[in-house]
Structures are given as C-alpha cells and as structure tokens.
Amino acid sequence: MDKILWWGFYFLTFYAFLPGIFSRIFGFRVFSRGITDREVALTFDDGPDPVYTPKLLDLLKRHGAKATFFVVGSHAEKHPELIKRIHDEGHVIGIHNYVHRSNWIMRPKTVKRQVHRTSDIVKSITGERPKYYRPPWGIVNIFDFANKGSLQIVLWTSMFGDWKQRVGAERLYQKMRRKLQPGQVLLLHDCGDTFGADHDAPANTIAALERILNDGREMGLRFVSVDQMIETTAQARANRTAARRGDAVAAGPAESASSPAVHRPSWFKRVVVALWMKWERVFQWLFRLRSVGDGSAFHYRVVKYGGPELLLKEGEVLRRGDYVMEIHFVNKMMYELGMTSRSEVHTAIRVIQKVKQSLPEMAQELADAPHGSEIKALYGVSMINRGSEGLGFETFDLPKGLFSLMTNWYLRLLTAIIHPEGRTRVKKHGERLMPRALIMRRDVLVEWGAKAQSEPRSERRPQQAKVATKTSAYEERMDFSEEEPVGDTV
C-alpha cells in the first residue's frame, strides 16, 4: 500500500502538479507576459469558427490590430479557408491540439501525435509550420516541455471567462479594461463549440473587444501577435541586462563587496512558499516521516533501498532490499537559510554545518527507528554534495531513468522556490543542477553519535562558534566556488 501511495504521489506530482507550477508560477519554458512599453498581445483559442472567426478578422482589420490564433486541428481541417485568411492577413497561427482535450488525461505519445497532426494541417494550408503551442486549459504535463521540439509554449497573463455567454459583453469589457496595459497576453475565444463553452459566447467577445481596441488606441497601445511581443520582450531584457552591468561598473568593486545582500521576497513568492510548506506537511503525513531532533531541520523514514547495487568503502555493499534511513531536509529551514545567506557559497556552507550538527541526532534515531538494528546506511539525494565527503558521505550518480528525471525536476523546482534568485539560478545553471545520491555507512554514522557523547558540552559550543567565524577557511576546505548552484535535498 505504501508503494502504491508513493508512486501515486510521484505520478500526480511530477507528471502534472509540478509542471503546472513550473510553467504558471515560474514561467519555466513558457511565455506568458511581455516586457513592453506599448504592446498588448491578443490571443484567441479554440477556433476557427465559420460564424465568429470571420467577424473577428473583420474587426481586427478595421483597427489594424494583429493577433495570435491557437487553432484546434479538427476545426482547422474543416475550415481551411479561414486558416488561409488568418495567415494571409498577417496574424500568427499556433497549435491548440487536434481535439480540445487536457494533456493530463492523454498519454505523451497521444499529445505528440495531436500536435504533429495539427502542424501538418496548418502547413498544408499556409505552407508554414506553427511555432507556438498552447495546451488546452493551459495544462501541461512533464513531457510537454520535451515533446514540443521547436515549439514555444505560450500561456497568458489574463483570461476573462469569455467562453460563457452569461458573462455578457458589458461585464466582459469591464474585466478586460482593468487588465489593459502593456505586456499583457490576453486570452480570448473565437469559438464556443468546445466542452464547457457556450456556442454564441464569442459574440460577447467581439462586442467587448471593439471597445477595448478603441480604448487601446486612445492610450497609445499597439495590439500585436505573440511573435512580436516575444521579440520586444527579448530586446527589453537585453537592455536591462546591459544597464545593470553598467550600474555595477559605476558602483565599483569596493562598494559592491561592502554592501550585504538583502533578500526581500515579493508577496507573491511568500504566498507560493506558504502553499509549498503546506504541501510539504501533507507529504510528511502521507509517508509518515519522523523528526530528527526537534524536527526543524530534518525528517526521515526507514525504507528498503531500491536502487542498483553500490560498492561502499571498507568493502561494504548496499544491495536492493537493504534497510536505509532516508533523510529529508525541512524546506522551511532551507528557505530561511537561502533568504539570510550572503551568497551561494554561504548557503552551501550553512547547509553542510546543519548536516554536521544533526548527524549525532540521526545516530541516536537508530535505536528507536523501525528496523533500526537492520539499517545499513543513511541515504539522501541532494544537489548540495560538494564537501559532503568530509563528513563521511559517499556520493553516487543517480541511475538514468524515471526516478532520476523526476528527482531532477523536483529539486529544480525547490531551488526556484526557496532560493532568493532561484528562478535565475535554474535558468543559468540548469545543466549543472544535477542531484547525486549521498550515502553514509552505518558504522560511520554510529561514530558520529559516539563522538558527540564523548565530547564535553563545554567544548561543543566554542567549536561551533569557531566554525561560524572562520568562514573563509571552511570555504577553502569544502572546495566551493561562487558559481556553485545550490539546490535542496529530497
């Protein structure tokens, strides 16, 4: 039963839940908001529709506005003349699957076939393959990021429920007007024939949009397609980067070095972190994790090792089926360390110190843990593994496969959440954020417990203070570098 829960949790988390967070909250591999002075991107889903798409195209043409149409392949197949008109009038065509069905309930191969089939249909009509993809309801699974090839996933900044006729043209206009500002990617619909939609709802969309186009012109806004928005955003980011580099040079190295980093998370990130901590408590309850010490830094559970056979030092072998103490960092602690550390190196050093301080308590758990006398090793997976050998850990690459893939995604997400610059780190150091298995033999862990018991209390605190004050020497011994990306443990 425990295995069923574990794999069910893994499936829901890694196949659907985490990719959704990655894409919607952290913008991983998706485009959903522009950085512009005047541009607003109009996007329309579910079409083409033989009644409403022509009316919408007429409206856009009168106002000189461009848009992006994410078309359903089966609709495009029925109305090739509308696809041709959309293309000929300078709008961008994207893919919205062949049928309007959630990617969460389709196999990866099925999604891939739907995307390719729709791409073939559009190419046969326009001579060009679409470059943009929007999954129905914006729901992605873990394979969407890999399966789309050269397609850019596009989500949205604001949507308005315009697929329901009861919203009404006036209310829809008011909702859109509140969001009318540069950088917005507006989600609208030009077809009401999909599940949950009302057939004539696009009439309200067209009526409200005409007023929005007039308001936008008076505000000096430009209504553009997604490709124009992406290009403008890329240029704005390049300009910002150049400006920041110029400011850093002007400030001088002395001023930069003497100014400590102050990490003030936005209210949005604080909400995300709070939700994640609740999610972590569900995980702890579901898998009956036990606390190490006061539970502020580590939890653990005793499980049977399920990986490949590993040859440890002193000739010991860790085999499938051996009991291990599986260690989990408390992510609240990781978040607080990240928010109060001066640098990547400082965070990593403090994490290693936390592990060092907790090892004697982990050793004490051997007496009370289930199957405690049979536990063969301490086991964890972490991106923070440099320097761990000095504590007695042995590190191993994770075997390639589903577990390695899901663990990598999970730890990248944690890095994006708990570190002040996590999203930047994931993008910048993505190829270097590789988790490794950390294993400590039982006899080494027991030695940590014995050492703590034999060491007088009066000698422990000065030693900890000494370690804390000699950061540079500790840093040299641990062989960290300033560019070392920091991740969390499982």
TrEMBL record:
The lineage of its organism: Bacteria, Bacillati, Bacillota, Bacilli, Bacillales. It comes from Cohnella nanjingensis. Keywords: Membrane, Transmembrane, Transmembrane helix. The keyword Membrane applies. PROSITE patterns: NODB. Pfam families: Polysacc_deac_1, YkoP. InterPro entries: Glyco_hydro/deAcase_b/a-brl (IPR011330), NODB_dom (IPR002509), Polysacc_deacetylase_ArnD (IPR050248), YkoP-like_dom (IPR054467). GO terms for biological process: carbohydrate metabolic process. Residues 450-490 are annotated as: Disordered. Residues 481-490 have a biased composition (Acidic residues). This is Polysaccharide deacetylase family protein. The chain crosses the membrane at residues 6-26. Residues 38-224 form the NodB homology domain. One of its GO terms (molecular function) is hydrolase activity, acting on carbon-nitrogen (but not peptide) bonds. The keyword ATP-binding does not apply. It comes from the Bacteria.
